[in-house]
Design goal:
The protein is of the alpha+beta class. It is built from eight helices and eight strands. It has a three-stranded antiparallel sheet with strand order 2-1-8. A three-stranded antiparallel sheet has the order 5-7-6. Helix 1 runs antiparallel to helix 6. It is extended and about 90 Å long. 2% of the residues are buried.
């Protein structure tokens, strides 16, 4: 029997609509994959050295005290510092932040401490601490606002061995720029923003509805000028008061 002689099954309007939507969803999934590939390619671009390095603000970090560095355990504490050191960047060398106090703006110094190890990293030893290094840490229970529960953190005991130092933040290299790659990413981002495709893409890929108002302004076509306005103000505007 020839395939052209097979009985033709007419598609209903509902099935046609469902097939169109399914095909559109497949295109959105492909668009999301293409965007991920482009971003991954951009992330893997190498760093290129600058012809003229420049200073971009200041950085503050911990350093081992001179007398400790010259002692017999200087190398031991220097190795430990590399694992728990923290770095802050600021445009001003004073590292002060603006804060409102009693109706006036005052400047206070930004606090900085050594890295606090949470229970997850401590049990799995993600920092690769030795047994001699673990002895220098003490557990402390604190209340976590995010988890709404008591959590255990491990703090370094001998903080007096380190001092804060401020150094110029010098930029020696930058990410390689690919103009064609940037153009392709921009085209995809413009289409997603213009057609408001991100909510549907997030539901298809991530399985949950994307809330655009959580991170950016509401699109122009969805803005309601009458939203959150009392009725009497609308009446006054209409009457011309």
């Amino acid at each position: 029997m020839d395939m052209h002689d097979w009985p033709y099954i007419k598609k209903s309007a509902r099935r046609k609509k469902r097939l169109v939507k399914k095909d559109f969803d497949k295109k959105l999934i492909g668009l999301d994959k293409q965007r991920d590939i482009l971003w991954a390619t951009k992330y893997k671009l190498p760093m290129v050295p600058l012809e003229r390095p420049y200073q971009s603000g200041w950085k503050r970090l911990f350093a081992l005290r001179g007398d400790i560095l010259r002692s017999a355990k200087g190398e031991f504490y220097q190795t430990l510092l590399k694992k728990i050191n923290t770095v802050q960047y600021h445009h001003d060398r004073a590292f002060k932040k603006r804060k409102r106090k009693r109706g006036k703006y005052v400047y206070s110094e930004k606090p900085q401490i050594l890295r606090v190890i949470d229970e997850y990293d401590w049990l799995r030893n993600t920092l690769k601490l030795t047994d001699k290094e673990k002895v220098l840490f003490s557990p402390k229970e604190t209340w976590s606002v995010r988890k709404k529960a008591l959590i255990t953190e491990y703090h370094f005991l001998e903080t007096w061995r380190f001092v804060l130092v401020v150094k110029p933040h010098i930029i020696y290299e930058k990410k390689q720029h690919d103009e064609l790659l940037e153009k392709e990413i921009k085209q995809i981002e413009n289409r997603i923003n213009r057609e408001n495709l991100q909510p549907r893409m997030s539901k298809l890929v991530g399985g949950s509805r994307y809330k655009y108002w959580k991170w950016r302004d509401e699109p122009e076509k969805y803005k309601n000028e009458l939203k959150n306005k009392p009725v009497y103000t609308l009446q006054e505007e209409y009457m011309g008061y």
